């Protein structure tokens, strides 16, 4: 479902803030495997950390779990512009990277971070019934995989359907190109296997907002695979999935998409 740049701009300008005059604090470099597993590698201890940015003076706040992009080969946890002081708890996550690890470690790390969030976020004034999982590019891919393939979270006795919403920003719907590279498959050959969100379409998945840049400006095929994912989720009977294409933006479309994420979280938190 295509949205024009003008409509996006109106939505961004007119979007009410989720909070006013709250005081926020940041707790950094929390090891999210701590307490979830008995042993960790040195690289796991170094890399598998998250930050929590939360308001101090209120409770039961919606939570946004953010996975950075970087092709599963680079990137660092950060809070995107536009997510600060918006009445949400932000959990921003580092995960292990290629070539030091290979699939499915990236997805396993993402699931462990989401599991940590479910088990601990109330200490940071978040509501674990209002956890929204999102990220850009590779991070959007991880968000989709954790929310759609229920096996990753079930390892921690968490039902993936408890996620309040999945909001991948320009994430792969087919198998990620770095994983295809690890399997010796050319980047131009589309694969839909167990490492593809498209493989795991189901009508009982959490609500989804799919956001991409303009189809002519995006990475090769990214809009088209996302549109096909959207169509197949509708075909299978998913009741709450929407696709937005941001005119005027290519793959680097995080900033204009953030207000859409916040509006989605606000509306779903009311339900």
UniProtKB/TrEMBL annotation:
Keyword vocabulary terms for this entry: Hydrolase
Domain called BD-FAE-like: residue spans: 50-215
Keyword Hydrolase: yes
GO molecular function: hydrolase activity
Pfam (any one): BD-FAE
Top-level division of the source organism's lineage: Bacteria
Protein name listed in UniProt: Lipase
Species name: Maribacter cobaltidurans
């Amino acid at each position: 479902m295509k949205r024009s740049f003008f409509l996006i701009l109106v939505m961004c300008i007119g979007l009410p803030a989720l909070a006013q005059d709250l005081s926020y604090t940041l707790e950094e470099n929390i090891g999210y495997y701590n307490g979830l597993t008995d042993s960790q590698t040195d690289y796991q201890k170094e890399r598998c950390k998250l930050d929590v940015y939360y308001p101090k003076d209120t409770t039961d706040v919606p939570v946004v779990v953010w996975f950075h992009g970087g092709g599963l080969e680079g990137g660092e946890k950060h809070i995107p512009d536009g997510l600060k002081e918006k009445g949400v708890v932000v959990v921003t996550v580092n995960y292990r990277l290629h070539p030091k690890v290979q699939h499915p470690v990236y997805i396993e790390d993402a699931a462990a971070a989401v599991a940590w969030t479910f088990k601990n976020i109330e200490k940071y004034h978040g509501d674990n019934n209002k956890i929204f999982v999102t990220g850009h590019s590779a991070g959007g891919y991880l968000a989709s995989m954790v929310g759609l393939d229920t096996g990753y979270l079930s390892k921690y006795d968490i039902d993936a359907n408890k996620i309040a919403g999945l909001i991948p920003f320009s994430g792969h719907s087919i198998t990620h190109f770095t994983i295809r590279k690890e399997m010796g498959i050319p980047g131009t050959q589309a694969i839909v296997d167990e490492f593809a969100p498209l493989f795991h379409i189901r009508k009982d998945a959490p609500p989804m907002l799919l956001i991409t840049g303009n189809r002519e400006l995006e990475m090769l095929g990214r809009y088209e695979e996302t549109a096909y994912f959207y169509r197949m989720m509708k075909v299978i009977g998913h009741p709450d999935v929407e696709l937005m294409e941001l005119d005027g933006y290519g793959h680097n479309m995080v900033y204009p998409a953030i207000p859409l994420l916040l509006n989605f979280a606000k509306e779903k938190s009311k339900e």
